[in-house]
Please model this.
Amino acid sequence: MEIAPTIPNLENRRILLGVTGSIAAYKAADLASKLTQAGMQVDVILSAAARKFVTPLTFQSVTGRKAYTESDLWGEDAHVLHVGLVEGADAFMIAPATANTIAKLATGQAESLLTLTALAARCPLIVAPAMDVGMYENIATQENIKILHERGVFFAGPAEGRMASGLVGKGRMLEPTALIGVLRQVLGQGGSLDGRKIVVTAGGTHEPVDPVRVLANRSSGKQGFSLAQAAIDRGGSVVLIAGPVTLPTPVGVRRIDVTTAAEMFEATQESVENADVLLMAAAVADFRPGEIAKEKIKRKNDVPEITLERTDDILAAVSKLKAKSGRPRVIVGFAAESQKLIKNAQSKLEEKGLDLIIANDITAADAGFAVDTNRVTLIDREGGSEELPLMTKAAVAEEVLQKVVELLGAADDGS
Ligand code: CTP
Model:
């Protein structure tokens, strides 16, 4: 049986999860479970209204820790409880947060355990509104949100969609995975890539043959998307240039969708101008049809001969930019090889002027395209090489980013 992997920037950290009285409270149980699986200590506080929808036992069962309720406010340990709860907490997330709770937060009320704790907390506060569209759009709620926003409270959502009332509009609580994305971004702030701009390319490219057909490759984009997430976890400002893939965008990332190698070339050139790092994980087409047929090529016609032409090498062009302007400061390439892994990767590192190359044996089982795991070797320009065991693409991203932080530090010292 597989155990869900922990999330490095959440692991061993403590979160307070406030749950208030909305039907979305049932989703908070899933959120508490996912946070626990990510490696967090989750202390849940249920408002009196939340207890109408869910029970403390629900949360205790998924977190393995006591879930607190209003009765604890006046219990034996009450005099220290709210202080004890906030002490050492890394974040306080209120999900779902009703219009009523948001109003109380905006006016600094502290008559319940949940609001009292929110007032005492010194850690980042993340609020995930959940309410009917009319309540959300009401000027009173909007003003309360504005006040809290100005005070540095983070808002996650709400999303648009169908609500319990049957109305469709803005007011749905974000899904637990999206809320975890917001938490990762908030906790990433001030990390080792704080103030750095990271450009990541991901996925393959599609080179059109005619209006319906393309030349494509099997890249899933998973490694590139994991790199973008790992950069967010370290507080980086991330631009993700993605080929045609269907993966969800990590929260906090600015995504630019492209289709062809030429579009990826242009988007990358523009994005790296003021960037610190380029992580070129995309599987860019090396060749494209010299001519694109204007009409669909018909089956009954003669078998077509498609002449290919070379695409531009994006990395080679970016290293020329670096030689001229010093930007981006660190260039990382990937080498997908089916033979002579290390030798071919080293030549690519030199030919393309890279600081680091991630060599990837695409013939190895559980590595390469479309799977969740990868087996790679990191090779730097000083000749250092580190062979990593089979690991998840998220774990590979962690290793790569750790190395990138070192290379950036060295580039700072050298400049
Ligand atoms: N790459 C690029 N522009 C291209 C093709 C590839 O910037 N037109 C980048 C890839 O994103 C990757 C690195 O170059 O980071 C190596 O890609 P790879 O496909 O392994 O090598 P190629 O240079 O295409 O050489 P070959 O296909 O012959 O192995």
User: Anything to note?
Assistant: The pocket of cytidine-5'-triphosphate is lined by residues 261, 280, 282, 284, 286, 311, 313-315, 333-336, 348 (CB under 6 Å). DSSP finds 14 helices and 22 strands in the chain.
